[in-house]
Amino acid sequence: MLYPGFSLSEAGRLYVRSFEKRSRNLALDYASCRALLALAENEGVTQQRLSELTAIASPWLVRILDRLETMGLAERRPRLADRRARSLAITADARAMLPLLRNIAGESLREALRGLSTDEMTILVKALDRVITNLSVIDHIAPVRAAAG
């Protein structure tokens, strides 16, 4: 493996492709699912905080949230503490979809990790967390952990 960085990128690309094959019937792409799953676990956050949690750039997240709102899966609510900011929440329709989204994420992950032992998976997660931390420090951003999808 001459350039492992390319392998990281390729693994990510193939994981997204695998995920989107499964989520196609929901008319949701990977980024939308990631945002929706993160929002379900962090209801009431601002758009800025959701951007940090998902590592989705704010301009892209605006479009994703617009689409999720149009689909009736997310909503922006007035934030009592700050009239300029909005709290984000999922709708009842999105809540009903969560088990399926979690199943899609789980199936995609199981497919990606097939053949790895539990010890290898643990090492992989720790190594990826370290890589993310290293690159986040260089980029001066808060690292996003694997739990977001």
What is the molecular shape?
A: globular
Query: Any guess at the CATH architecture?
Result: Orthogonal Bundle
Bin the helical content.
55-70%
Number of strands: 2
Structural class given helices, strands, pairing? Answer: mainly alpha
Number of helices: 6
What features would you describe in this structure?
With 149 residues, the protein is mainly α. It has one domain (4-148): Arc Repressor Mutant, subunit A (Orthogonal Bundle), CATH 1.10.10. 65% of the residues lie in helices and 7% in strands. It contains 6 helices and 2 strands; from the N terminus they run H-H-H-H-E-E-H-H.
Describe this structure in a few short sentences:
It is built from six helices and two strands; from the N terminus they run ααααββαα. The chain has 149 residues and is mainly α.
List keywords for this structure.
149 residues; mainly alpha; Arc Repressor Mutant, subunit A; two-stranded antiparallel sheet; 6 helices; 65% helix; globular
Q: Could you outline the blueprint of secondary structure elements for this entry?
A:
Elements: H1 4-23, H2 30-41, H3 47-54, H4 58-70, E1 74-78, E2 86-90, H5 92-113, H6 118-139
Antiparallel strand pairs: 1-2
Helix pairs in contact: 1-5, 2-3, 2-4, 2-5
